Every structure is written in C-alpha cells, then in structure tokens.
C-alpha cells in the first residue's frame, strides 16, 4: 500500500513536472530550432508515431498476466510468460526494421517536394535514430511492464521524473551552442534507452526475475492475443476519436482552424492525464482481486475511492480553467488561439465524467471483459465521424467539439455505466451519489471564483499566477471541510508532509 500511495504522489509530481517543462521548455525549443527545423522534427516523429501502434496493447497484457500468475504463485509460468513476450516483441522489432527500411527508401520521394537537400539529409538521420530507438524499445519495454506488475511504483515514477528533468537540462545548453533537431533526437533516444536498461537491470537485480524460453501452452497464447487485440482496438479507436476533428477540419476549414482545434486537444489531453496517471497504478492490484470471493464488492470500493480522488483534482482543474483558461491561452498561445478556450470547455465536462471512471477500464482488463467496451467505442467512433462532418459544416470547429462531447456522453457514460452496473456489478448508483456530494463545494467555488477575478483581474501573467494560487488554495481548504473523507484527508496530509508544508 505504501508503494501505491507513494506512486500516486509521484505520478502527480511527474505530471505536474511534465506540464511545467512543456510550458517553459517548448518556447525555448521553438526559439532556438526555428519554425522550419521544429517542423522537420515534428514531421519525422509523426511518421514514427504510426509504427508505435504495433505494440498491439501488449504492455497492459504483460501487467495483467504477470500480476495474475504472481498472485496465484505460478512462478514457473510467470518466467515462461516473460520469455514469450520478449520473443513476441523481438518479432515485432524485426517487422518494424523491415517496414522502417522500406519507408527510409521512400523518404527522398516523399520529402523532395517540400524540402531542400540539407533538410532531407537531416530528416533521414533523425528517422534512422528514431527507428533504431523503436526497435530496441519493443523488447526492452517488457521490463517496464514487469516493474509495474510487481507494483514497484516508486522506482518507476522516480525514473520517469529523472528522464523528464534531464531532457531540458541536457538539451537547452546544446540548443544555445547551436545544435538542432538531430541533437534533440539523439538526446531523446539516449534517455529512452537509458530508462529501459535501468528497468531491465532493476528487474534482474532487485526483483530477481528470470526469463525462461520454454514452450508456452497454445491455449494461453491464444487467450493472450485475444486479450491484447481488444486492448489494441480500444487504443486505436481512442486515437481515432481524438484525431477525427482535426482531420475533418483540415478537409473543410483550413490549417488555421486546425491549429486552434489542435491547441484545444493538447489542453484536453493534459486534463485527461491528471486522471489516467493515478488509475494506471492499480492494474496489478485489481488483477490480484479477481480470485477473492468478494471481488465485486472490492472492485466497487476501489472504483469509488479512486474515482473520488480523480474527481477532486479534475474539478479543481476544470473550475480553474473556467475562470482563468481564457487568460492562460492568451498569454501562452496568443490571441489567435482564443477559440481554444470555448472548444476545451465544451469537451471538458464529459471528459471529466469519463476520466473519473477510468478505473472501470482497468477492472474490465483485469477480468478480461474489455471486448464489449472496444466494440461500443468502435461504433461510437464511426458515429463521431459522421456527426462531426455534419456539425462542422454548420458550426466549424465548435461542431467537432460538440460531436466529440455528445459521443463521449453516449458511449463512455450512458452505455458503459449500464454495462458496469449490470454486467460487472459495480455500484454505479453509489458512485454518482459520492460525486454529487460536491454540490456545496461547487457552489462555494463558483461564488469565490467570480469574486476573485473581479477583485484581481488576471490581465497579466503575475496576476494570473496569483489568482490560480489563491483559487487552488481556497479550493483545497473548502474541499477538506465540505467534501473530502478521512482517507482523502490523510492522503492530503501525506502529500503536504512530503512537500515540507
């Protein structure tokens, strides 16, 4: 339990640090690289990103089956499983190498129309580094999943924090000295491989795991691939939903509208990250609960407990964005992106309601019951495409945001809540009762928020930061007295203690 509590705290520290680095470091990167060089880097990384889906959802599969075998004491099968996944990933790496060589031979033809010879050469160099990075990442990522399955969250999160900090610390001097995008790719590759190797050494030395290459039962292999397929389908459909608006706007509205919508999507992804950073920690624990006689009751308790934690944080972010988001976007992205404020708000409420139930997704994965969700999301994604197209012709980028919000309410909330209640036996009624207890907190913070921006207008960066700090402090105090239960108050004390407050 200490690992889980510390993991939650470090997850939020990692998330906060990542967002701070993104806000501070990205302008530095843009300034020293320049628009052309940054565009070159973005293009190559976007090409590589398509190959990352070849993971096929195996990361969570490793965590699920490792935690299951470990809880059942099937250590021999566990070590066989590690060997099986390494072999699978080696096969995927070979496939990536073949595809990578094929794409490399076509890069000249693909880039010649928009780039000069020097830019093409730099692009090809970056491409080779990133393909090599991906080839090594697949088999070595098994050990990252093993660390998670063994619930060693302090090590995993601390390692991630080190990587987040090191990249700007190493890269900023290099940028000042004149190095460009190729150096950035080299640094990213080195830090990624260093992290993967650290996880591998930790697994062998500290966790004392072994990898065996015995033949695995074909039935288990079939079960694993079916499990992975539905995770992969869910991930692929999720990516489709997030990119639908940008693609449709690119066809109907032009690049400037796409850019505004892309800023809104970036904000929403950061918002969702506040919830997913917690719930991912609990997959091993949830998997261990499967064989307990009162598992349904335990699942409901965990679902509500984690959902409340996520809700408290996301409610703070949502309300803070409502009052200060417009000013933040103005200072951060500029007045040309002001519409991103309204677009983000439209999607934030259904996204928050989805995010606070993310533990339910992990329960489905642990129970190997994610098939229904993946199929529902597939059809909802298709519906989103048609609805976005129809609404965007009338309302532009707002039509895409409205469509996205409607589809989340139908698929993620309405349909999945019925499934959770009736098939998984989660106490959804009690869950929403716990959420609605926040009504007095919300009313109090709305009144305080309007008063605050009237007294201290956030028309400068200093005033904006001051408003956010004051608002967050009052929200925390009122949450403590009006909403938090004993567990949440104890967790807050632990966080403040670790921060030295």
Key traits:
single chain; 501 residues; 2 domains; 18 helices
Helix content: over 70%
User: Radius of gyration, Cα only, in angstroms?
Assistant: 23 Å
For the largest beta-sheet, the strand count, sense and barrel status come to: none
Average residue pLDDT: 86
**What is the chain-wise order of helices and strands?**
HHHHHHHHHHHHHHHHHH
What's the number of helices? 18
Structural class: mainly alpha
Task: Give your account of this protein's structure.
The protein is mainly α and 501 residues long. It contains 18 helices and no strands. It folds into two domains: 1-216, no CATH class; 226-501, no CATH class.
SSE arrangement:
Layout: H1 2-51, H2 58-71, H3 75-111, H4 117-149, H5 153-176, H6 181-205, H7 218-252, H8 255-279, H9 283-289, H10 295-332, H11 339-355, H12 358-367, H13 371-395, H14 397-422, H15 428-436, H16 439-455, H17 461-482, H18 486-498
Helix pairs in contact: 1-4, 1-5, 1-8, 2-3, 2-4, 2-7, 2-9, 3-4, 4-6, 5-6, 7-8, 7-13, 7-14, 8-10, 8-11, 9-12, 10-11, 10-12, 10-15, 10-16, 10-17, 11-14, 13-14, 16-17
């Amino acid at each position: 339990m200490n690992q889980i509590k510390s993991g939650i705290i470090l997850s939020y520290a990692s998330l906060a640090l990542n967002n701070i680095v993104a806000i501070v470091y990205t302008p530095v990167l843009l300034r020293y690289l320049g628009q052309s060089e940054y565009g070159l880097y973005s293009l190559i990384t976007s090409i590589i990103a398509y190959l990352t889906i070849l993971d096929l959802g195996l990361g969570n599969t490793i965590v699920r089956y490792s935690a299951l075998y470990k809880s059942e004491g099937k250590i021999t099968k566990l070590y066989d499983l590690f060997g099986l996944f390494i072999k699978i990933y080696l096969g995927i790496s070979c496939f990536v190498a073949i595809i990578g060589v094929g794409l490399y031979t076509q890069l000249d033809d693909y880039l010649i129309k928009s780039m000069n010879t020097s830019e093409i050469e730099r692009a090809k160099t970056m491409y080779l580094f990133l393909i090599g990075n991906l080839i090594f990442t697949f088999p070595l990522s098994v050990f990252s999943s093993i660390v998670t399955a063994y619930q060693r969250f302090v090590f995993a999160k601390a390692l991630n924090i080190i990587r987040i900090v090191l990249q700007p610390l190493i890269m900023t001097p290099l940028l000042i000295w004149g190095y460009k995008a190729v150096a950035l790719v080299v640094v990213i590759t080195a830090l990624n491989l260093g992290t993967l190797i650290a996880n591998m050494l930790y697994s062998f030395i500290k966790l004392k795991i072994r990898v065996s290459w015995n033949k695995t039962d074909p039935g288990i292999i079939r079960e694993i691939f079916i499990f992975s397929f539905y995770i992969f389908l869910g991930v692929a459909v999720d990516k489709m939903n997030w990119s639908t608006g940008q693609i449709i706007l690119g066809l109907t509205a032009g690049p400037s509208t796409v850019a505004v919508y892309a800023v809104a999507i970036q904000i929403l992804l950061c918002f969702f990250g506040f919830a997913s950073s917690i719930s991912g920690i609990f997959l091993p624990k949830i998997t261990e609960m499967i064989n307990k006689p009162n598992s349904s009751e335990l699942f409901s308790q965990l679902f509500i407990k984690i959902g409340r934690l996520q809700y408290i944080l996301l409610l703070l972010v949502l309300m803070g964005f409502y009052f200060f988001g417009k000013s933040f976007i103005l200072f951060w992205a500029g007045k040309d992106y002001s519409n991103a404020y309204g677009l983000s708000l439209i999607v934030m409420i259904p996204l928050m309601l989805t995010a606070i139930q993310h533990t339910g997704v992990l329960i489905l994965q642990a129970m190997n019951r994610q098939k229904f969700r993946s199929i529902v999301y597939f059809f909802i994604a298709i519906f989103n495409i048609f609805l976005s197209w129809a609404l965007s012709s009338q309302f532009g980028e707002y039509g895409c945001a409205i469509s996205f919000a409607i589809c989340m309410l139908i698929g993620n909330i309405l349909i999945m809540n019925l499934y959770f209640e009736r098939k998984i036996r989660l106490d959804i009624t009690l869950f929403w009762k716990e959420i609605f207890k926040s009504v007095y907190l919300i009313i109090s913070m709305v009144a305080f928020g309007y008063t605050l921006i009237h007294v201290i207008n956030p028309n400068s960066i200093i005033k904006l930061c001051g408003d956010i700090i004051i608002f967050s402090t009052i929200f925390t105090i009122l949450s403590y007295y009006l909403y938090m239960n004993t567990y949440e108050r104890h967790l807050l004390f632990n966080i403040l203690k670790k921060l030295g407050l």
